Amino acid sequence: MLGLVAGLRAHSVALIGWGLTSMVEALASLIVLWRFTGSRVFAGDAERKAQRAVALSFWLLAPYVVLHVAHDLAEGHRSAPSPLGIAVTTISLISMPVLGVAKRRLGARLASPATAGEGTQNLLCASLAAGVLIGLGFNTIGWWWVDPMVATVLAAVAAREGWRAWGGHVCRH
């Protein structure tokens, strides 16, 4: 949530997109919890439904980010430096790989591609945090164009991972 707030304050579409990935990750966590509650624990189709729901959660982000980049470029909007954004992405860059690897290992032990896919989202979050952090750094020296470039890459990676998760594959970051 802090990433989204920082992005809105700085008008950084990459930081806004990254902040939204945090919300998408929370949704994916809820999907995995749903998968392992009640009668779904032993239901044959529950894993596939959860896996596809996780894939859909990857896709929630891409269209918004692409449209936001297009709008900002058309309107001439430029992002401002964001100390809060730098702090939040740095924390994520450190913590998300640990969480992602743990979830992927748990997914493998449970034979749950949905759980492993949710861990992949944490790894994706860390990778994107690194890109956004680099973009924010370049923004402080006036290279405004790095922000929409990072945001576009963020959208493409999210769409690709959604397709892979839909097909039952988990990316190997």
Keyphrases for this structure?
173 residues, mainly alpha, 7 helices
Q: What is the chain-wise order of helices and strands?
A: HHHHHHH
- Name the shape in a single word: elongated
> What gap, in angstroms, lies between the N and C termini?
24 Å
- Strand residues, percent: under 5%
Structural class: mainly alpha
Q: How does the major sheet shape up? A: none
Number of spatially distinct domains: 1
List the uncertain runs. none
Cα-atom Rg, whole angstroms? 16 Å
Give the averaged pLDDT, no decimals: 83
Textual characterization of the structure:
The protein has 173 residues and is mainly α. The protein has one domain (2-166). It is built from 7 helices and no strands. It has helices spanning 2-10, 13-35, 46-59, 62-75, 83-110, 113-139, 146-166. The longest helix has 28 residues, at 83-110. It is elongated, with a radius of gyration of 16 Å.
Record the SSE blueprint.
Layout: H1 2-10, H2 13-35, H3 46-59, H4 62-75, H5 83-110, H6 113-139, H7 146-166
Helix pairs in contact: 1-2, 1-5, 2-3, 2-4, 2-6, 2-7, 3-6, 3-7, 4-7, 5-6, 6-7
